[in-house]
Amino acid sequence: MATPAIAKPRSGYDRHKNTRSGVELLAWLFMRLSGIVLVVLIFGHLFVNLWAGEGVKAIDFGFVAGKWASPFWQIWDLLMLWLAMLHGTNGMRTIISDYAERDSTRMWLKLCLYVASAVIIVLGTLVIFTFDPCPAGADPSVVPSFCEAL
Known about the structure:
It is found in: Membrane. By secondary structure, the protein is mostly helical. The protein has helices at about 20-50, 60-65, 70-100, 105-130.
């Protein structure tokens, strides 16, 4: 019976094998960069919503309506939503790739992940850009009190 050839212990290791794909490198880089940007976005969000204002008790429908009246805050919240979802999706994709043993299981889990992510990103984007606290023709008893001044 032939024994397999074992490399000599001090023969070295070829670190330049092409074992990594460009996609994985980009995903790794995206995680690092998006993490840095997310820290800035999230702490800015917390500072404005909790510390600079009157705290949690001031956050209500009117606060969000006033904040989203500005395109700056719409873009801020949109970036936070997209980056958080893409960052989390990429992390879950890595976990699925690492722990799902069968190819079919891996494929179905990733498909569910991508669909859920896409739905949340699309719905969140629609909410941010179509949010109207004072819809025309709405029953005055259900709209906020600040809409009557308009």
